[in-house]
Design goal:
It is a single chain. By secondary structure, the protein is of the alpha/beta class. The longest helix has 17 residues. It is elongated and about 70 Å long.
Length: about 400
């Protein structure tokens, strides 16, 4: 319910930064004044900053270099596959690409990423999938299941592979986003079947050179003790494979999404990785996707309906869960920011909803904003990952713009 007697305040101070914030009451991002941009080019539209992606990537690399960790970054293309952004990333030469399907592999190759700079990790991999990867022997393939090891071995005897393991511990923004834990997950090979995995690899003369694990989506500093345990579990798996020279720690590093979510302590994170891998002198692979893209993108929308219903003020916009589903599916909040702050405007509490005819089509709940009017533009911040890449045409509302601002 809205508390109209004592509305909270709209305080953007915690999320503003040098390339994102209000100037003279107008929201700027990546050097662009977004109100003017939205009015001219239309909404809904995703807008991205290549400079922010690069800064996020360099920050990760710097933390690992400072700890003396040999490493290679593979950007998880499933988070965002906007061609101009990926072309920029290719030009930097700072990372490879992590794929989870043959189509993503072929797209990465088309963009100019060498096969040796591409890593594949997937689940429920079909024979047709494996036929494609068999034609690209330089691609790093992490096998997620005994079945994958067997069928890849039938096609590629003698190939070097990675094995994705499940250390049964995970974390994320919330418990829906743990990739491992006490509840069995579809991801990875568990300890009780690891001997079978080793036997299958030996049968087909597959060399296990990498152990891979994925901890969760959106883990933060508070989760680092559990991350340390997961590292130890993965290294224990690696200890049973004499040819392993690489530990792939996956992705899933979190970004601040509320004032109560401080940034991930990268120095501490990198220190844990260094401590876990130092004895065996393991190279580290990592697969950040949303960490690079999340706060480098926004979804611009127009408010078309502002109305009280049952004591709640709803603000309906011209985008929905078909364009950004993280709140509907995972209750991962966006920052909602009006593109213009009206001087002296009071605040109210809103539930922001989309234009898809589904009950779960909610983009934000219980958010305090300066009073909205129909025709206002708002930005959903932290929308750079898992938006356009997973968009659908549900209700035939799949049209949107996509732009690189810088």
């Amino acid at each position: 319910m809205n508390d109209r007697s004592s509305p909270r305040t709209f305080d953007p101070a915690w999320w503003q930064r040098g390339d994102l914030g209000y100037r003279a009451g107008r929201l700027h991002f990546a050097g662009c004044e977004l109100q003017q941009w939205a009015a001219r080019d239309g909404t809904p539209a995703f807008v991205y900053s290549a400079a922010r992606v690069r800064a996020n990537l360099l920050r990760l690399r710097a933390a690992l270099y400072a700890q003396g960790v040999r490493h290679k970054v593979f950007y998880a293309i499933k988070a965002n596959r906007f061609r101009p952004l990926l072309q920029a990333m290719r030009s930097w030469g700072l990372c490879g690409i992590d794929v989870c399907s043959p189509a993503e592999l072929l797209y990465a190759l088309e963009l100019g990423f060498p096969a040796a700079d591409i890593s594949f990790t997937g689940h429920a991999v079909s024979n047709a999938d494996l036929d494609v990867f068999a034609r690209h022997p330089d691609v790093h393939v992490n096998c997620d299941a005994l079945s994958t090891i067997r069928r890849l071995g039938e096609r590629c005897s003698g190939r070097a592979i990675g094995i994705r393991v499940n250390p049964r511990i995970g974390a994320g923004y919330n418990d829906r986003l743990h990739y491992a834990g006490s509840k069995p997950s579809k991801f990875g090979i568990y300890h009780d079947r690891f001997d079978e995995a080793l036997e299958l690899a030996a049968r087909y003369r597959l060399r296990i050179t990498q152990v891979h694990f994925h901890f969760g989506y959106g883990y933060l500093t508070r989760d680092l003790p559990q991350f340390e345990q997961a590292l130890a579990g993965a290294v224990a798996f690696a200890g049973r494979c004499p040819d392993v020279d690489t530990l792939d720690v996956g992705g899933g590093m979190g970004c601040p999404i509320t004032p109560d979510h401080p940034p991930l302590d990268l120095d501490r994170w990198a220190g844990l990785i260094a401590a876990a891998t130092r004895a065996r002198k393991l190279t580290v692979h990592l697969e950040p996707g949303d960490y690079l893209m999340k706060d480098a993108g926004a979804l611009l929308c127009e408010v078309n309906t502002v109305e009280d219903k049952g004591g709640v003020t709803f603000a309906g916009v011209n985008a929905g869960l078909n364009l950004q589903n993280l709140w509907a599916y995972y209750q991962t909040p966006f920052i909602v920011a009006p593109l213009v702050l009206r001087e002296g405007s009071e605040c109210a509490t809103y539930t922001v909803t989309g234009n898809i005819n589904e009950a779960i089509d909610v983009l934000a709940e219980d958010v305090t904003l300066p009073r909205l009017q129909e025709g206002d533009f708002v930005a959903l911040l932290n929308a750079g990952g898992y938006g356009s890449a997973s968009a659908s045409n549900h209700c035939m509302r799949g049209s949107f713009g996509e732009h690189l601002l810088d």
